[in-house]
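Deliverable D2.4 — example input (structure tokens):
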């Protein structure tokens, strides 16, 4: 590479360096942190190193040995960080109920100079189930959160099994999230495709007005738009007032705190992401194709199905992908407009992140959504490549 080419290359890198730094700091770093939290589990190991050494080779089906009890007692006596002890207790209690009271009673008893046998403090220390929870949490890495994100867990033998139905509902909420996102995508397509055709068929100031109408939601805060729908969809809101005033219904139609209101509000918010990709494809299709089909005797519907629709499939696929991927991560709209049975997986992630400070579960659920998004994008890429090869 010559000196001139090298300078041009370095100049190009210098121009995009701020963008690369921004992506690395505000996207890649948080993403890596989230993924590491989902597989990291050091809350128990960092406080119980002697217990980890004493429990190597222990048969989970047998009672704990005296060495294991003595090591645990020594580890608990050495703990001086109350917050770390609380984190460990929460971790163990999530694996085996009863650890909160057990740890509280044990730590109080171990404050005396005479260290009693743990079994004398509480008979649960002779129960293998509590030691199975401790030994299972001693590894610095775990797949526990990732399995729990889809309602799975490992049994005593290490096999992956389904959680009890009363233990978790992450899978049901995940399926509900995908179903709501699919409904919103279909609604956006049903409204957005005809509207995109209308925009593409006009020109001049009419096209600018139609484009401004669909772009207007993007210029307004999401919270403001959702609050507006909260008012419009109420029993005494604009829609029900019109329906009752025209005599179309005998009373208010339930449009809020249910699935219908969520779909309506999310469709309004996400409609531009469907209209704009389809419009960008439709304006590139020559106008004379439909006229040529009509001159050859094709019915307008047949011409649409055989000519216009196939040529616009790339825009439809792009818009549907954008809407679906954006919809599965929605939080504000379902939280304000939907009921208890309409909350999506983002609400569960927010609860784990801020309500219970369980960053491992929040990261695991985020990874599931990320994997789904990557798979959808990969499928779209394969379909686009296949279409280009056929073209």
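Example output (designed residues):
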């Amino acid at each position: 590479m010559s000196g001139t080419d090298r300078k041009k290359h370095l100049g190009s890198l210098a121009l995009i360096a701020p963008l690369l730094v921004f992506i690395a700091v505000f996207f890649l770093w948080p993403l890596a942190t989230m993924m590491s939290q989902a597989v990291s589990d050091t809350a128990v190991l960092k406080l119980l190193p002697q217990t980890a050494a004493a429990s190597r080779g222990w048969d989970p089906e047998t009672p704990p040995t005296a060495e294991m009890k003595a090591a645990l007692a020594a580890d608990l006596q050495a703990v001086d960080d109350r917050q770390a002890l609380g984190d460990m207790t929460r971790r163990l209690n999530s694996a085996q109920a009863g650890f909160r009271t057990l740890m509280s009673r044990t730590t109080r008893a171990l404050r005396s100079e005479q260290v009693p046998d743990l079994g004398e403090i509480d008979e649960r220390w002779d129960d293998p189930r509590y030691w199975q929870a401790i030994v299972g949490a001693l590894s610095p890495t775990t797949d526990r959160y990732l399995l729990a994100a889809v309602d799975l867990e490992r049994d005593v033998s290490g096999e992956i099994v389904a959680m009890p139905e009363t233990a978790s509902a992450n899978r049901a909420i995940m399926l509900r999230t995908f179903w709501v996102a699919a409904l919103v995508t279909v609604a956006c397509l049903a409204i957005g495709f005809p509207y995109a055709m209308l925009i593409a068929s006009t020109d001049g100031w009419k096209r600018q007005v139609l484009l401004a109408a669909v772009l207007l939601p993007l210029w307004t805060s999401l919270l403001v738009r959702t609050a507006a729908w909260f008012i419009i969809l109420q029993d005494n809101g604009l829609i029900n007032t019109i329906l009752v005033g025209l005599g179309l219904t005998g009373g208010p139609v339930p449009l809020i705190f249910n699935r219908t209101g969520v779909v309506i509000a999310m469709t309004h918010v996400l409609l531009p992401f469907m209209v704009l990709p389809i419009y960008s494809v439709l304006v590139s299709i020559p106008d004379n194709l439909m006229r040529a089909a009509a001159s050859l005797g094709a019915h307008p519907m047949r011409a649409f199905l055989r000519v216009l629709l196939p040529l616009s499939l790339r825009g439809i696929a792009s818009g549907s992908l954008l809407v679906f991927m954006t919809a599965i991560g929605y939080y504000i709209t379902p939280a304000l407009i939907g009921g208890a049975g309409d909350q999506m997986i983002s609400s569960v992630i927010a609860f784990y992140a801020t309500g219970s400070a369980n960053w491992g579960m929040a990261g695991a659920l985020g990874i599931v959504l990320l994997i789904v998004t990557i798979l959808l994008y990969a499928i779209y890429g394969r379909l686009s490549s296949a279409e280009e090869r056929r073209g």
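The first strand starts at residue 152 and ends at 154.
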